[in-house]
User: What shape does this take?
Amino acid sequence: MDAQFWTYLLVGVTFSLYIGIAIWSRAQSTKEFYVASGGIHPVINGMATAADWMSAASFISMAGIISFLGYGGSQYLMGWTGGYVLLALCLAPYLRKFGKFTVPDFIGERYYSQTARTVALICAIFVSFTYVVGQMKGVGVAFSRFLEIPYDLGVIIGIGIVFFYAVLGGMKGITYTQVAQYCVLIFAFTVPAIFISLQATGNPIPQIGFGSKTLDGVYLLENLNQLSVDLGFEKYTDINRTTLINVFFITAALMFGTAGLPHVIVRFFTVPKVRDARISAGWALLFISLLYTTAPAVAAFAKVNLINTVSNAKYAEMPQWFKNWENTGLLEFDDKNADGVIQYAADTQMNELTIDRDIMVLANPEIANLPAWVIGLIVAGGLAAALSTAAGLLLVISTSISHDLLKKNINPKISEKGELWAARISIAVAVVAAGLAGLNPPGFVAEVVALAFGLAASSFFPAIILGIFDKKMNKEGALAGMIVGIVFTTIYIFYFKPQLGGPGLPENYLFGITPEGIGTIGMVINFIVSLIVSRVTKPTPNKIKDLVESIRYPK
Amino acid sequence: MKEKYWKKNILYLRILLTIWFISSFGFGILFAEDLNSIFLGGFPLGFWFAQQGSIYIFVILIFIYVFLMNKLDKEHNLDE
Assistant: This one.
């Protein structure tokens, strides 16, 4: 039985599972639709949060990026996990006590202002929409590469599935499907990693195998450092001083951005109590860390395997997978000196092999000669990661429209039933819009995902933190801070991203910070502006001070 | 009474977030190069903190916080 068969089988089985769960967990009220009635067990919520959080990028691309950056890839590992400490300690318990449905809800009430609510609402929709289009693209790519289904049809199948369970089940349906998706994706990610670690070092735990000796008695990382130097690259574990400041700022922007992303925050509204919100963040990070500590191990193993297989080997003797991946364009061999041997080197004049970073996860089972069903598993896992994140994001878009815009802004008298229908219709429209954008991905989508973290860090994070920890923070301060933070960050990114048509040159970066890390500066500016403006304008009304007081205590 | 609870909470946050900062931005980034001369099995220590250690510490920090706060809630009769 070949890989194609296993892929169809595993994708078919997992998709039927998601649909089954959706039918079983239909939402009956707006509270069920928005926050699953606030009745989710903290461990279940932790699992759902982990699936919500880990996207196609975490599953497919991250290990590959680390593989090529070595130490430099650490910014993603620390950045996309460290934010959970902030969430657990500084946000989740208090927002749970506040007990509403959305982030704009909190901003609107805490800052007693429809304008603040609307600013938050626009940010939430913008951040979520750019992110979701990327997921749709991931679904299309997974289908087209592995099942030989055209990209467009792949996207349409993906839309169909998400449409079904998101429209029907709302947060309740999404939560339970996300739990299933977490199980699928973590199994799919760790099984090949265990096999590979066992093959290379005899240790089944990749996190330990990664620091162990290979079968020929040399430490894996030492071997990798040596291979890298031989090919003209920097040592894998070495730290490049010139970019260290940038690593610092990118890590920070990703951490603070994580803690400000609406689709993550909203998950903590679904548990019954304040103490559940705290522990739930702990479970979420534990589940996430299973993948995040395995990924750097996969990165190192895959790099060693790849170099050993292809470097200075005869092209004619390459295994079948090499030819297969050449057909997809993810591997390209250009025999510049016509000697029939593959030269892989840092020097671009000499290098003959172009490797797409995604291949490190996708082709890993084949490179390591793993059984065919493992390849099917990787596809099912990648799809689970993309679909679970897409569903969580679409829910944020839909609640922003039906709850924050319609119910709180336009028509407060709308009935419960009417609001539920509005929520369903808006999620349906959002699914279709995201799908259409995924069919014709605007070129800038990938670039704008970086913007999502920067925006979340420079807008939501300070407004929420100050809303909880600073009673004197008023409407004027928060609004001024959010607007200055967003505007600064957006302008910097657009100015310095050539892909967005920006004229800025890297030598003019502020303190050498790339657009990916500028959200950190935007956040600091937001904090400063908020604090100054709040101290010279009208004080916060007493009613709001009481509200802040009340969210600080669980009871 | 309630003020004491909040002050203690802030104290916990200060301590835990300091550890959070040192283990990631400190050991994983700013001092990583110096730590790299120490080895943990095959791992240079700075590299290990950046790609493994900091993440383990993050998880542990949250569970410690949960433990401390549950205790504090009880002491102040604020648990739900």
